[in-house]
Design a protein that fits this description.
- There is one protein chain.
- The chain has about 450 residues and is α+β, with helices and mostly antiparallel strands.
- Among the domains are: about 135-260; about 280-335; about 340-455.
- It contains eleven helices and nine strands.
- It is elongated.
- The relative contact order is 0.06.
- It holds the Pfam family T5orf172.
């Protein structure tokens, strides 16, 4: 039998047979399907096997030249270790081409995987841009996250002090000495741990709520690099230690997002308090005005009665009763600060049709609040569709928000009071609960919007 090397394998010397335990070099290409490694001695080489450069070419050899005799290898007393046969130039080129093909395939696979990762990260960034963030460890407030982070830091310190942050073989020898080997393992372990912690700390410092996935991948790469570099000593980062650092990243991102939410909530609460103070000041000013007007009418009424003008006195008494009722209503609103107006407004130029804002104000004149909303935040003034006074405007506003909860424009920030609804739908819901609309307008006027639209640049 004759050994028949596949394409890309070096051609062995005449009569060469693999010694016991021999295996092909991993860098050689795989044999084609169905390839026969052993052929009868008189068979011709299989097609596709490049000729060896140290054999005589067919064109230069005599046509009837007999094949050179093959001498069997001389037996040796002790088998020599397997040595790969030398490569001829043609075989060397074929092996290199095969290796290049393997590397190109691996590169294509890696690039495809990298593209998938980029798509995933971009998707997360898009979600973050629109305000969607999914908490890894939902906790009540930022203080709870700080406490949890302190617990994580304590557990990290305990693993480091116990020498269990990095695991490695304890029977590694160096220069024939187990003690030297253990010292080398300990020194290299400290170096690897320092490199890993530096990467973890950099990830924490540069962390934002939207790039948690990127930071975790960086830390995973550091773990793989340490495991690869310390393979001889079976060195690797303790999975428990790595899990703690990953949890630290996730909790830090959650903490940053929670702090941002609490700042926004505090800003809204300050705005609510300012609105309440303005309402209280307006109510106090109105109370003072009504008291002055009442004093004036009382004086005039006494004069008319003293003069005997009963008809004028009766008319003035009616007016005085209205003023006293206004004072009573004003005092009620001061005592019950939850009373106010629920408004339904829209802005076609800013948000398009069929989008309304449902809110409440404690102002004496609710339109003042509507004008404030349209001062600088939107390009056009709001149109008022409905105004309704309620003794508990806060509760009524919450009921309306719950009724249209599935039609919110912003499902993440519940303090954004915009809904995909028509003014008629809100009016009907108000009519089901309580009556007494001061006014209702179905179609928005949107005067500024319609006048400006005619002057806009033409679209391409």
């Amino acid at each position: 039998m004759r050994f028949n090397p596949p394409p890309g394998w070096p051609t062995p010397p005449e009569g060469w047979t693999p010694p016991p335990g021999w295996s092909p070099d991993p860098s050689w290409p795989d044999p084609p399907p169905g390839w026969q490694l052993w052929l009868p001695a008189e068979s011709e080489p299989a097609p596709g096997n490049p000729p060896s450069s140290h054999l005589v070419a067919e064109d230069d050899a005599p046509a009837a030249a007999p094949p050179a005799p093959v001498s069997p290898p001389e037996p040796t007393a002790e088998p020599s270790p397997p040595v790969p046969p030398p490569l001829s130039p043609a075989d060397d080129t074929a092996a290199l081409l095969a290796r290049i093909a393997v590397l190109e395939a691996a590169l294509t696979t890696a690039q495809a995987g990298g593209a998938a990762e980029v798509i995933e990260l971009n998707d997360q960034r898009v979600l973050q841009d629109v305000g969607i963030y999914r908490y890894h460890h939902p906790l009540e407030d930022a203080a709870a996250y700080k406490d949890r982070l302190r617990e994580i830091e304590g557990q990290v310190d305990e693993l480091v002090k116990a020498g269990r942050a990095v695991l490695a073989a304890d029977m590694f020898t160096f220069d024939g000495s187990l003690a030297k080997g253990r010292k080398m393992v300990a020194d290299l372990g400290k170096l690897m741990l320092r490199a890993y912690n530096a990467e973890a700390d950099n990830c924490v410092r540069s962390l934002r709520a939207g790039n948690v996935s990127t930071a975790k991948k960086r830390l995973e790469s550091a773990v793989k690099a340490i495991e690869k570099l310390g393979a001889m000593m079976q060195m690797r980062v303790n999975p428990d230690y790595h899990a703690l650092r990953i949890a630290e990243l996730e909790l830090t991102a959650d903490y940053q997002m929670k702090v941002q939410e609490e700042r926004e909530r505090a800003r809204d609460e300050r705005e609510l308090l300012r609105e309440q103070r303005r309402a209280e000041q307006e109510l106090a000013s109105e109370r003072e005005r009504l008291e002055k007007e009442k004093s004036h009418y009382v004086s005039v009424l006494e004069s008319l009665r003293a003069a005997g003008d009963q008809t004028a006195a009766d008319e003035l008494a009616t007016r005085l009763a209205d003023i006293e009722q206004a004072i009573t209503d004003n005092d009620y609103r001061i005592a019950n600060i939850r009373a106010g107006y629920v408004y339904v407004i829209s802005n076609m130029g800013a948000f398009g049709p069929n989008v309304v804002k449902i809110g409440m104000t404690r102002r004496l004149e609710p339109r003042d609040r509507v004008r404030e909303l349209g001062d600088a935040s939107v390009p056009f003034q709001y149109d008022v569709h409905a105004l309704f006074f309620s003794e508990d405007a806060i509760a009524l506003e919450n009921e309306l928000h719950k009724a249209f909860a599935d039609r919110r424009v912003n499902h993440v920030n519940q303090r954004r009071e915009f809904f995909f609804a028509t003014p008629v739908e809100v009016r009907d819901l108000l009519a089901e609960k309580v009556g007494g609309l001061l006014e209702f307008t179905e179609e928005p006027e949107a005067l500024e919007y319609f006048q400006s639209r005619n002057l806009w640049p033409a679209e391409d």
